[in-house]
Amino acid sequence: MKTLMCNCGFSITNENPYHVEAAMWHHAIHDHGDMLKSMTVEMLEQWLKGKDEQLKAGA
């Protein structure tokens, strides 16, 4: 099972890592849209790297 967690407490777990990542993006866009809009490309890159580490740890 793969799991991703948001700092706000939202969590998604599924066997399919693509589903987990898509669900996390859906959550981030709908619940944290203003924050995402204020982030630079570099900040988003670091966020994505952190989420990749979470997915690897859940392998």
UniProtKB/TrEMBL annotation:
It comes from Paenibacillus cremeus. It comes from the Bacteria. This is DUF1059 domain-containing protein.
